[in-house]
Design goal:
783 residues, alpha+beta, 7 domains, 5-stranded antiparallel β-sheet, 23 helices
């Protein structure tokens, strides 16, 4: 029941599948029929094209059966195309027997070895000439290894054959002429058999090997070229024949006792052999070596230049760049290992910041690449971002390359700016000078001047702007001189400075009373400088100074006479007073009571003290006036200082002080005035006694100190008194000073000033060192 329910459905499905299959079969049949008809039409068209072609095919199968068109049978004089190749000859028609045999053998060889063949035949009783060209047929044409022979009718080419025969005749004549030319050629030429042995040589070959004749060379197998690395010239020729291409090499050989470089060429000529020739290139090689040496020397020289130089070849690749060029463009020293093209070099330089900034860099780069095709030298200035200024010179060379020269002009531009600044500074300096200055060239023309020059001589600016000659200048200033003839002296000074290169000068008086002093100074650049100074005021001041000097000389003479008179006038009364007091003390005027004796003792003490003060005053006055007389003698320092100290023993005892006298090292004698040096040392010791409180110690020390190549004697007097501040210390050595109104100002005493004057009169020095509360040290240094 269930099966009968699905039976109609199954039948319907089978009918539907049958209908689809039938439709597909119909469509496929129609498609195959269309393709078949198209192929049939194509075959007909191709067959017709073959029938109309100038060459007819002949298909020969392996069993000897042939396929060809009826047109080929007509060419062969046959009524119809036979079934076998052997039937192409018969009854005086078709191919001749010997040609048919040759064709049969060629077809058989072609079917077995696929070797193509060519031959020409003429049918029996026909003037038609046929060319046969056979080769193995394509498997799509005949898969059984058949031979396909194309038959060409060249009967209509008889005229062409006549022409070719004439050309062949001419070619034979040309060949004989070529043989004669080869024989007469100055270069060795030869011909070898396929086995590499010599067969023919020309006269130049015979002469090069030093043989008697060409036959002798061939018979002996004399080679022109030596074996290289064990390979003989014959072996090289066989290699060329095997390769089927020429072999060219450069070798060295001995000709007429000289080593010569030869370019040897071996040219294979098919199965006939190998031809060869040798060209003497020794001169070319020598020239090449010289050129290489010149190029190396040139590049070594370019490396020494400060300018950068780069060479580019015809392919626009960098062939050379010297060290300055690599340094200017920050190139790696290995750049010549893989030389970049010109455009790539610009890209590298741009990355390093060594080209100017350009808004459209590709366009800028193309513009620079056009230098190669430019017909003239191109020059540009590049300003780089780091302030560098480069001068670029691009010179196209005849071989299509480019020579690029780069010069760093940064320093030149800087120096030019500095020079301009210096020129402006010089002009401003000249104009601001108080002196009148002018610079003259060796030809006598004025180059530079300042405003003061024009003012001092009373010259107009328009006249000076013409850069006048010195003669014209002299004519101008002559009218302004007190004595016009003196203008020539100015010209002599200018000529001496510019031509004689000597410095001279002089003075000249103008008509208005002014006095000018001028001098000519030769300058390092060959020019001469004329300097003029208005000394009118100086002359007046000089006259006044001369008058003042005369007055001072007279005053000094008066002072000298005064000091001489004062020494006599002061000492005579003092001596009288002292003498009379001593007479009274001795009782020559009668007996004196105790009070009288005290008065007389006081008079004697006061007169002695006054005498010392008078001596000190006179010594100080004479020292300041430069009139102090000194009597030098040799003095032993230690006994001398001991005697000075011992004279003050009473004062030391009275003041309750002790004195320590020391000597450090070995002392040498002094050359000094004993009396005045003792007075100087005594004043210093007296000051120390007066400044020291009771119970203290005064140090007097002598020492010898090395100074340079000599030595000095030092006398140190040191006390432990109250000391002095800096202001008091400065005033201590002043003594007496004359104030601005002419009054004499006294200081604390004459001891220290006199001591300083006396020590300095001996060529020594006195130095004080004191601090409040720490005492005072006085150091005398004597040569």
């Amino acid at each position: 029941m269930e099966f009968s329910r699905f039976l109609p459905l199954l039948i319907g499905l089978l009918l539907g599948a049958w209908t689809v299959a039938a439709a597909w079969a119909v469509l496929a049949a129609r498609s195959r029929q269309g393709r078949a008809e198209a192929q049939l039409r194509s075959a007909r068209r191709l067959g017709r094209m073959v029938e109309e072609s100038p060459a007819l095919p002949l298909l020969v199968r392996t069993d000897g059966r042939i396929e060809a068109s009826q047109r080929l049978a007509q060419w062969l004089g046959l009524d119809e195309v036979p079934q076998y190749l052997s039937e192409l000859e018969g009854n005086g028609k078709g191919l001749p027997a010997e040609k048919l045999a040759e064709l049969t053998e060629a077809v058989r060889r072609c079917q077995k070895t696929a070797a193509p063949f060519r031959m020409a035949v003429t049918p029996h009783g026909s003037s038609r000439s046929l060319a046969l060209r056979g080769h193995l047929a394509d498997p799509q044409v005949s898969p059984g290894g058949a031979a396909l022979v194309w038959v060409f009718d060249f009967s209509d080419s008889e005229t062409e054959l006549v022409r070719l025969r004439d050309e062949a005749a001419r070619a034979r004549g040309d060949f004989h002429a070529l043989v004669s030319l080869i024989e007469a050629a100055p270069m060795p030429m030869w011909f070898r058999r396929p086995d590499g042995e010599l067969q023919l040589v020309n006269h130049a070959y015979v002469a090069a090997v030093g043989a008697k004749s060409a036959d002798d060379v061939v018979a002996k197998g004399t080679e022109l070229i030596e074996a290289v690395d064990g390979v003989t010239p014959g072996q090289v020729a066989r290699q060329a024949a095997l390769k089927g291409s020429p072999i060219e090499r450069i070798v060295s050989t001995t000709i007429d006792g000289q080593r010569r470089a030869l370019r040897v060429s071996d040219l294979p000529l098919g199965d006939d052999g190998v031809a060869g020739y040798a060209v003497d290139i020794e001169d070319l090689e020598e020239m090449s070596r010289s050129f290489r040496a010149f190029r190396e020397a040139q590049r070594a020289l370019l490396d020494q230049l400060s300018a950068g130089v780069a060479q580019f070849d015809a392919k626009r690749r960098l062939s050379f760049a010297n060290q300055p060029f690599q340094r200017l463009f920050k190139l790696d020293g290995r750049i010549l290992v893989d030389p970049p093209a010109f455009e790539r070099l610009l890209d590298t330089a741009r990355d390093a910041g060594r080209v100017p900034e350009a808004r459209d860099f590709p366009a800028w780069r193309r513009e620079k690449a056009a230098w190669f095709a430019a017909g003239s030298t191109q020059e540009e200035s590049w300003s780089l971002a780091d302030g560098t200024h480069l001068r670029i010179v691009a010179q196209p060379v005849p071989d299509g390359g480019l020579l690029l020269i780069v010069e760093d002009r940064t320093e030149q531009l800087r120096l030019s700016a500095v020079r301009d600044t210096l020129l402006r500074t010089r002009t401003a300096t000249f104009d601001s000078l108080f002196e009148s200055v002018a610079v003259f060239a060796p030809d006598g023309r004025m180059q530079i001047w300042n405003r003061r020059f024009a003012a001092d001589w009373g010259l107009e600016s328009e006249f000076l702007d013409t850069h006048p000659h010195v003669e014209a200048l002299l004519r101008k200033i002559a009218s302004r001189l007190k004595r016009p003839v003196e203008a020539e002296t100015v010209g002599n000074v200018v000529r001496a400075a510019t031509l004689d290169r000597t410095q001279t000068g002089g003075r000249i008086t103008l008509a208005d009373g002014r006095v000018l002093e001028y001098a000519g100074v030769p300058l390092p650049d060959g020019n001469g400088l004329l300097a003029v100074l208005d000394i009118t005021d100086s002359m007046k001041a000089e006259q006044a100074l001369r008058e003042s000097n005369s007055a001072l000389i007279e005053a000094d003479a008066i002072k000298t006479r005064f000091l001489a008179n004062m020494s006599k006038e002061l000492r005579t009364p003092l001596t009288s007073i002292g003498g009379f007091a001593e007479m009274l003390e001795l009782g020559l005027g009668g007996d004196l009571n105790d009070s009288g004796r005290d008065y007389v003792g006081s008079i004697i003490s006061a007169s002695q003290q006054l005498g010392d003060h008078i001596d000190s005053l006179l010594d100080l006055s004479q020292s300041e006036a430069g009139l102090l007389p000194l009597k030098f003698e040799e003095i032993d320092p230690m006994p001398f200082v001991r005697s000075v100290v011992e004279e003050r023993a009473a004062r030391l005892q009275k003041a309750g002080l002790t004195l320590d006298l020391q000597a450090k090292g070995l002392l040498r004698p002094l050359v000094a005035d004993r009396r005045r040096l003792a007075r100087a040392v005594g004043h210093i010791v007296d000051n120390a006694i007066a400044a020291s409180p009771r119970g203290q110690r005064i140090l007097v020390q002598l020492a010898r100190r090395k100074v340079g190549e000599g030595d000095t004697i030092q006398i140190l007097v040191q006390d432990k008194g109250a000391g002095m501040d800096s202001r008091t210390l400065a005033r201590a050595l002043d003594g007496m000073k004359v104030s601005a109104d002419g009054k004499v100002e006294s200081r604390d005493g004459l001891g220290l000033p006199l001591a300083r004057q006396l020590v300095e009169a001996h060529g020594g020095s006195l130095r004080l060192d004191s601090e409040p509360g720490k005492g005072t040290s006085a150091l005398i240094e004597l040569p």
